[in-house]
Each structure stands twice: as C-alpha cells, then as structure tokens.
Amino acid sequence: MAVRIVRLGSPRAPDEGLRIGTVRHPPRGVRKEDFGRLDWYDVWYPNLAPTADAVRAAHPLQTDADWARFVRQYRATMKTPDHARSIALLAALSHQASFSVGCYCENEARCHQSILRDLLREAGARLGDN
Q1: Is the Cβ–Cβ distance between 102 and 18 less than 8 Å?
Q2: Are 13 and 99 in contact (CB under 8 A)?
Q3: What is the residue extent of each domain of the chain?
C-alpha cells in the first residue's frame, strides 16, 4: 500500500491502483470516457492543482527564483484548511490502499508533483516507487 507520484498519460505500473489527476484541466482532445483507459486518470481532483494565478505566474519558469516563488505560492495554498484536509486524507489512505496522483508535466523537478510529494511525505504518507 502506498501513494505514487506519476506522469499522467504514462503507462500504469501493475500495482499502481487508482490514478488521481491533480491538474487544473482535463487532457485536451481526449473523450471523458477514455481518460482511465488511456492512462490519464480515473478520478479528476483539481483541488490539489496549483491555482490559475500560480500557473500564470510560473509559466514559463525561467530562473530558480521563479521556481522558488511558485513553490511558496503552492505550499501556501495547500496550507489552507480544505487543501490540508485533502493532503491528510491521501496520506492516511496511503497506509490502506495503493493509488497514484499526478500531473502532465514531463519534468517532476519543476512541477507541483514534486511539491505534492513532499507535502504528502510531511503528512506521513507511505510513498511508493515510481
């Protein structure tokens, strides 16, 4: 049992479990009924996606200072009660079930996925291999 951080649209690991999309928008050009079958996600949960303002401010990320600003914004958003409860819920579930959360970004190091991984770890989540 564990939570994995994945790139949405990538092939699923055999024991990955439910895939949760933590993105602002569904994938373009893909029919809703195909999201799971095509390895995008089974459940869309934009509550853990960066805010529209944070995304606008972050793109394109040019410098380490830009990235640091994005990290601060995302972490501040995730500290609010609704978001913090979502992270706590996923952290608790990771001890009972296998599932994954993810984003479309190719480079996890410059994506909210990396911050979400840290937030889940800080909340006591059991993290799986990617």
Answers
A1: no
A2: no
A3: 3-122
The tokens for 47 are 């509550």
Cis peptide bond upstream of 81, omega within 30: no
- Going by pLDDT thresholds of 50, 70 and 90, the confidence category of residue 41 is very high
- How is the beta sheet containing 43-44 ordered, strand by strand? 3-7, 99-103, 18-21, 43-44
Cα–Cα distance for residue pair 64/90, rounded to 1 Å: 29
Section 66-76 average pLDDT: 91
Please tell me whether the overall predicted TM-score, pTM, comes out greater than 0.85 for this model. Answer: yes
Q: CB–CB of 100/3 below 8 Å? A: yes
Return the sign of the alpha-carbon dihedral for residues 108, 93, 44, 123.
Answer: negative
Ranges of H-type helices in 1-130? 52-58, 64-78, 81-93, 112-122
Question: Which band of pLDDT confidence, cut at 50, 70 and 90, is reported for residue 24?
Answer: very high
Q: What are phi and psi of 106, to 5 degrees?
A: -75, -35
